[in-house]
Design brief:
The structure holds 3 protein chains of 3 kinds. Chain A has 21 helices and 22 strands. By secondary structure, chain A is of the alpha/beta class. In chain C, helix 6 (about 100-125) packs antiparallel against helix 13 (about 280-310) and helix 14 packs across helix 15 (about 335-360). Chain C is mostly helical. Classes of the chains: A alpha/beta, B mainly alpha, C mainly alpha. Chains in contact: A-B, A-C, B-C. Chains B and C meet through helix 5, helix 6, helix 11 and helix 13 of B and helix 1, helix 8, helix 9, helix 14 and helix 16 of C.
Chain lengths: ~600, ~350, ~525
């Protein structure tokens, strides 16, 4: 039975460790059948993108075999994969904003135009004539004639190589060498390429203007360009990395229609995602990765969303954290009608109001990219809101500097600990004092650091929070991810905050570290700290929060208590179904 | 490609128009000042000729810088590459009695220095600016050293055969300004042709597309299956070739055909300024190069008009203008869009 | 090919730690642990000592040393080709500098300041390549105050130095502000403002502030008053500016490591986003860093004027600000590293005079060496690669004898071919053909050397082609009537060796990278 199945791609025993020491794939064996839609499911950092980038030749593997349609390949660069019909749409689009759609699509596979386009010929002829004109004045007549003849011959060869040489060059090898030589400087057939792109677009219902600049296109259209890019290369094994993460629901529907059409035309599609809904809607088979290991491959018809979820997270979804009932105190954070724009000036938070009381955890649930990042940045002073007010206790912190907000009693666990949370080349001591370094007890005299205090405080914190992997003097970059996050938590809690803003505090952490951080958050709550928890993980929110608000498209679309609601209802809200609206589809 | 044409017109027209207005005003004031038609014509012709002469090395080096920076590698070593080009041109001419061989040697010498820069920046992922500094220091030391070794002289080399100047039959018949074209080095015309060729290569060939992609977003180019290193390497080497040619013009193309110690005198940096002010485009570079060349000429020009000779005491301020303009341009009076990934070494294996 | 191997080796070398390094690290950690229990002063001394045991301390030192050695080798080759005796030159340089150590310190004084200026700014993640302009501003300010107002001994130079530092600081602060608030890239703005400053001071010296006098044609200011001059410490040259430089080294080290300002600056330099999140005002720090860097460069100018030149004259600085970059780079942007690097360059400069007098090598050789050092430091991976490759050879040699030896012999002959062809490049009277082929041989030989060193068997084919070129060269040379026997000999040896190596490699089946 197994012998009859034709595989489009076989990945056997793939191992990959990044230079920093993160092991992204451990002995992963994955077989994708010809013509199927295969889902690759896993949490962030499970190694889904890594293994597909290895297949695509974008990353190198440490060991393992790659077989594409029965042929063993050793992809050194994406070109090797492209040559074998593999196309990939990356999560962060591989598009160059200042270039046009056409330029982006043909990059790397520029058409050798049989018929040079008019503009190009004009440019070349003008340049040639100019050159000849200049040459004619300082070369003797005879040499000038020879030079002119050579120059003209070269230009003709570059402009019309196939036509002139088709009959002359019987030897293909010679011709290939020649082609390679001139292909770089031969004029681009922009117009031909644009026509071909238009044609591909029309055939697949992916309308886009080939002459538009990519920077002027919406995200959805940019993704279309990415898809057209793979079609232009005549890929029939299509890898899509988190294609829906940036799309509006309508755009997602359109994408799914397109993918269905591709499937009908016999293409093999690999869909990387961390959302349960998508593979269940689209895929034939689904493989689940967890911490770089393949958990298993299942048929869609033989599984359920619950089973997939369990495979993904690897632990039964049970509440392990002891949580006494909350005793809310006075209002610590009061946000009124807050509006925030992102760096491009687009509104991301469109008027939200909420309060957090002392001794309670408010969870903000929502699919990433619905304004949570901008909301948090506005709360901690990293981004100026365009409208609205923020009150911490009775201090106005709207639009104030991060230091002002911190001094008002706000601590912040950033969502990206490498970019925002830690300074990796600093020592552990230095990172533990960062943000409080300018105040006593860390200064002995104004402006002068007290390094002994650095040392003593950090050795206490390293013990209290069981940060393992080095003393206070070692570099932070040598710590593991979990210990780095513990370091951030230790620092933020040690300043004795009134309000803690924790954004994705357990992202990418193992079970132990996650549990530790959950317990710490609860104990802080019990001590009367107000906590705002932003997380994309529904379970985390439901486990920890005393109140839940759901954000969608920059607005609050629902406010619930965890005991009053279930995952299904929250999921509906997160997907943008407003309360009271009839649910139109079953959400897992 | 109509939109490209429109864009070109819109963007490229500003600097030439400003330049034209300044020149017309200047000519009017000159006419008022000298009050003599014959002298005025002579001065005008001289102004144009000297502008072309001053602008040529700037344009060539800046074009070179464009190839390097568009591909994402900062090249502050242009100064050194020009210097070694100027030296190699004279040395090769001295040994082989043919300035054309000198020209070839200049281009090659600039290219070899650029290969060093490319190896450090592209292959070894070194710091572009440190490498450029090293190149400048090496070139300055090496050329002065060889000046002593070959000619046993300190300041300036022996004279060699100059490149034959050419006169342009049609251009030189134009009244008034025709004078400017009767005795110019062929390299001046090369520079203009190279601007057009560069534009063509940059915007109309796969090579140019890939080069620009390497400077804007190398990982995209990599994902398209094209080697980023290869195109960056070639970009840097082209910059050395062109800067070498610019250097050869300094020593063989104008004035005394000899090599002088430190003869580039900061022209590599002015070329860098022209590159930035020209917004990293060939025609922008042409316009900025001409403008800066014109400013350079102006300080000598005022010496010819008796009423203006006092300005010579302030010639440093004229020389400052290119540098100040670039600072102002970067501070935001003009939109300047450098290639996005400039000065960032491309590492493949870093997890995004 | 070469680059592929490079990539592989880098990946391997990053992961592995040698046994020695691990042992030292264990001892160090042990010491740190024990030191916690000891009384205050002993503890801090021991803790400071433990820093010397870290690889992070030795690595830049070893790299700098490697770069210097490589640069010296290439300089020696250049000298030999130019017809000088490199051994004589080097010994003259070293003895000359050692016997005149006051001169070494004197030459290094402005370099210390300039290097600190670049290094300090670099700690905040910025590049100050306009130290030259800041230095000119500082020197001009000091020169003006030096002759304009009479002040008592002792106070006068201090006032001048302070003003010089202030002028430099302002000139550095401007690009700092532009960077912080307008996003103008500091590499370009500092460079452009540097030229602006040089031209501006030039104008001052040639125009309004020119020394009066009917026959005074030079663009220079009036001599500063005696009260403003810095005292000479040692010998003829070394002035008190050197002491100030040492104070600045300690001061910069203190500011960077022990103050809030330095802490915040380093935070911004390493990770601006995280620093901002922690409540650090990155804009303020960026502007301040460039300002302080400018101040240090200004001090360089002021101390030179007050200590040595005693007046401002046009282009008095031979690119000191620019050399500051090289000092900072060689000193790994560490204040004490800068001190050592500056003394090293001062050593070269001071020794350069002796080299010129005794070995008749032009003093510009020093500039060439300086450039080469910087080029090698700029490419740490090159040195890393050479080190890795060499270690690899050691391992290979322990398992296999014949092939490593044949590789090594081929490398030696390729190197010799390079050297020999370089020398032939000087025989310009033999005509273009001869020189052209010599150039080709030298390039082929270099390529062959590196390819064989990278254990790429294609290098032998390149080597074979080079040997053919030797025969051609001999034929051309014979026509010109030179003694070509040696060329034929080199060609023969190279041909035989490369063919043998090819056979050996082919015989082993796998050609590339085996034994690794």
């Amino acid at each position: 039975m197994e012998h009859d199945i034709k595989y489009a791609v076989e990945l056997i025993g793939i191992n990959k460790t990044f230079p920093g020491g993160v092991q992204a794939n451990r002995d992963v064996t994955l077989k994708i059948r010809e013509g199927e839609v295969h889902g690759l499911l896993g949490e962030n950092g499970a190694g889904k993108s890594t293994i597909m980038n290895i297949l695509y030749g974008f990353l190198s593997k440490d060991s393992g075999r790659i077989i594409i349609r029965g042929e063993e390949v050793e992809p050194k660069s994406p070109q090797d994969a492209i040559d074998r019909g593999v196309g990939m749409v990356h999560q962060h689009f591989k598009l160059i904003p200042p270039l046009t759609v056409t330029e982006n699509v043909i990059l790397g596979l520029e058409p050798s135009s049989k018929k040079p386009d008019r503009n190009n010929s004009l440019a070349v002829i003008t340049a040639t004539l100019l050159a000849l004109f200049v040459l004619s004045f300082f070369l003797p007549p005879f040499e000038f004639l020879i030079t002119a003849a050579l120059l003209l011959a070269a230009i003709v060869l570059i402009l019309y190589p196939p036509r002139v040489f088709e009959n002359l060059m019987a030897s293909t090898r010679f011709r290939a060498a020649f082609e390679k030589l001139v292909s770089d400087v031969r004029p681009l057939g922009f117009d031909d390429a644009a026509k071909k792109i238009q044609q591909i677009a029309n055939e697949n219902g992916l309308a886009v203007d080939p002459y538009a600049k990519v920077e002027n296109l919406s995200v959805g259209l940019q993704q279309r360009v990415e898809v057209i890019k793979t079609l232009y290369r005549e890929a029939d094994i299509l890898i899509l990395d988190e294609p829906t993460s940036v799309l509006t629901p309508q755009e997602v529907d359109e994408l799914f229609v397109t993918l269905e059409a591709f499937k009908k035309s016999g293409k093999t599609i690999i869909l990387i995602t961390h959302k349960l809904r998508e593979p269940m809607a689209l895929c034939d088979r689904i493989s689940v990765l967890r911490d770089g290991v393949l958990v298993g491959t299942v048929k869609k018809d033989e599984t359920s969303a619950e089973e997939l979820a369990q495979m993904m997270v690897g632990r039964p979804v049970v509440f392990t954290v002891e949580k006494p009932p909350a005793t809310p105190g006075s209002i610590i954070l009061n946000v009124e009608n807050l509006k925030v724009k992102d760096h491009r000036g687009l509104p991301k938070v469109r008027g939200v109001s909420f309060q957090v009381r002392a001794g309670e955890i408010l969870g903000i649930a929502g699919v990433e990219g619905n304004g949570q990042t901008e909301l948090v940045e506005a709360l901690v002073g990293l981004r100026k809101p365009s409208d609205g007010t923020i009150l911490v206790g009775d201090i106005h912190t709207t639009g104030k500097s991060p230091r002002f907000v911190r001094e008002a009693g706000v601590s912040h666990i950033p969502e990206d600990r490498h970019r925002r949370g830690l300074i990796l080349p600093f020592t552990i001591e230095e990172n533990l004092t960062l943000g409080r370094h300018y105040r006593p007890p860390f200064i002995s005299r104004p402006g002068i650091l007290d390094l002994d205090k650095f040392r003593s405080v950090s050795s206490k914190l390293v013990n209290d929070y069981s940060i393992k992997g080095g003393g206070g003097g070692s570099l932070t970059s040598t710590l593991s991810g979990g210990n780095q996050q513990k370091l951030v938590v230790a620092r933020e809690l040690e300043s004795g905050p009134k309000l803690l803003v924790a954004a994705q505090p357990t992202r990418g952490l193992d079970v132990g570290a996650t549990e530790f951080i959950h317990k710490t958050l609860i104990s802080m709550r019990n001590q009367g700290v107000a906590i705002l928890l932003v997380s994309a993980e529904l379970d985390e929110i439901r486990t920890l929060a005393d109140h839940i608000i759901v954000m969608f498209d920059g607005r609050i679309v629902g406010e619930k208590r965890p005991e009053e609601t279930d995952a299904q209802e929250l999921g509906l809200l997160m997907a943008g179904h407003l309360e009271g609206e009839e649910s139109v589809e079953v959400v897992n | 490609m109509k939109s490209a044409m429109k864009r070109f017109l819109r963007r490229g027209i500003v600097i030439p128009v400003v330049l034209l207005v300044i020149i017309i005003l200047l000519l009017k004031f000159t006419y008022d000042a000298v009050d003599d038609v014959e002298t005025f014509y002579a001065l005008t012709g001289w102004l144009l000729e000297a502008t072309l002469q001053s602008a040529t090395p700037l344009i060539l080096a800046a074009l070179g810088g464009m190839f390097s920076e568009k591909s994402g590698v900062v090249n502050i070593g242009l100064e050194g590459m020009m210097l070694i080009g100027a030296f190699a041109a004279v040395a090769a001419t001295y040994f082989f009695y043919d300035p054309w061989i000198g020209l070839l040697a200049a281009v090659l010498a600039g290219g070899i220095l650029a290969v060093v820069h490319a190896i450090i920046c592209v292959k070894m992922k070194g710091n572009h600016i440190v490498s450029g500094t090293g190149i400048i220091l090496f070139a300055a030391g090496f050329t002065t050293l060889m000046l002593e070794v070959i000619w046993n002289r300190k300041g300036i080399s022996e004279q060699v055969t100059a490149l034959p100047n050419v006169n342009m039959p049609f251009l030189q018949d134009i009244p008034i300004i025709g004078v400017a074209f009767d005795n110019l080095s062929p390299i001046v015309y090369f520079a203009f042709v190279l601007v057009i060729v560069s534009w063509y290569v940059m915007y109309r060939t796969p090579f140019g597309l890939r080069l620009r992609a390497a400077g804007e977003d190398p990982s995209t180019l990599d994902a398209a299956g094209v080697s980023v290193e290869k195109y960056r390497f070639i970009g840097v080497v082209i910059s050395g070739l062109l800067a070498g040619l610019g250097g050869a013009y300094l020593s063989l193309g104008r004035g005394l055909p000899a090599f002088g110690k430190q003869m580039t005198a900061g022209r590599g940096f002015i070329a860098l300024a022209a590159l930035i002010f020209g917004n990293w485009t060939p025609f922008g570079v042409l316009a900025a190069g001409l403008f800066f060349g014109f400013l350079d000429t102006l300080q000598h020009f005022v010496g010819f008009v008796p009423a203006w000779q006092w300005i010579q005491g302030y010639s440093q301020f004229l020389q400052m203008i290119p540098f100040v303009l670039v600072v102002l341009a970067l501070a935001g009076i003009r939109k300047s869009v450098p290639p996005k990934a400039i000065a960032v070494p491309y590492e493949k294996e870093v997890k995004a | 090919m070469i680059e592929d191997n490079l990539q592989d080796n880098r990946d391997q070398s990053d992961g592995g730690q040698t046994g020695l390094r691990a042992n030292v690290e264990r001892i160090r950690l042990n010491l740190v642990e024990r030191a916690e229990e000891w009384p205050g002063p002993i503890k801090s001394i021991v803790l400071a000592f433990t820093k010397l045991l870290t690889w992070a301390f030795w690595k830049p030192l070893i790299w700098a040393l490697f770069s210097v050695v490589l640069a010296a080798i290439i300089s020696a080759i250049i000298m030999e080709i130019s017809g000088y005796n490199s051994l004589e030159a080097f010994s003259a340089l070293i003895f000359g500098a050692l016997t005149r150590f006051d001169r070494v310190l004197f030459e290094s004084t402005p370099l210390i300041f300039a290097g600190l200026s670049v290094a300090f700014v670099f700690k905040a993640g910025l590049f100050n390549i306009g130290a030259e302009g800041q230095l000119y501003m500082g020197s001009m300010a000091a020169a003006i105050l030096g002759y304009i107002i009479p002040l008592p001994y002792g106070i006068h130079p201090l006032v001048c130095l302070a003003t010089g530092a202030l002028a430099g600081a302002l000139w550095g602060f401007l690009p700092g502000l532009l960077k912080a608030y307008r996003g103008a890239h500091e590499v370009v703005t500092t460079m452009m403002l540097s030229y602006t400053a040089i031209l501006f001071t030039q104008w001052l010296a040639a125009g309004p502030l020119k020394e009066p006098g009917e026959f005074q044609w030079n663009a220079q200011t009036t001599l500063i008053l005696e009260t403003a001059q810095l005292p000479i410490l040692w010998g003829y040259y070394l002035h008190a500016g050197f002491l100030l430089a040492i104070v600045c080294v300690i001061g910069v080290a203190f500011v960077l490591n022990r103050t809030v300002l330095g802490f915040e600056m380093r935070a911004v330099g390493f990770n601006e986003a995280a620093a901002e999140t922690a409540g650090i005002d990155s804009k303020k720090n960026v502007a301040l860093a460039l300002g302080i860097g400018g101040g240090l460069a200004g001090l360089a100018g002021a101390s030179e004027i007050l200590g040595t030149h005693h007046r401002f004259y046009n282009s008095w600085s031979p690119g000191l600000g620019f050399e500051g970059i090289t000092v900072a780079v060689l000193g790994n942007n560490n204040p004490f590293g800068c001190l050592l690097a500056a003394i090293f360059f001062g050593f070269l400069k001071a020794g350069g005079n002796a080299m010129h007098q005794q070995a008749h090598v032009p003093i510009e050789m020093v500039g060439v060496m300086q450039g080469l050092v910087v080029l090698f430091v700029a490419a740490p991976r090159f040195i890393q690669w050479i080190a890795d490759q060499s270690l690899d050879y050691g391992k290979w040699f322990s398992v296999d004898k014949i092939r490593p030896i044949s590789f090594a012999l081929n490398m030696i002959i390729a190197l010799y071919g390079t050297y020999f062809s370089f020398i032939l490049l000087g025989e310009t009277q033999l005509g273009l053909m001869f020189i052209g082929i010599s150039a080709a041989v030298s390039i082929l030989s270099i390529a062959a050397f590196f390819m064989i060193f990278a254990r790429n068997s294609r290098g032998f084919i390149v080597s074979l082609i080079a040997s053919m070129c030797w025969f051609t060269l001999a034929a051309v040379g014979m026509g010109a009537g030179v003694d070509v026997s040696f060329m034929i000999l080199v060609g023969l040896v190279q041909a035989v060796l490369s063919v043998l190596a090819l056979l050996l490699v082919k015989g082993a089946g796998k050609s590339k990278g085996d034994g690794a």
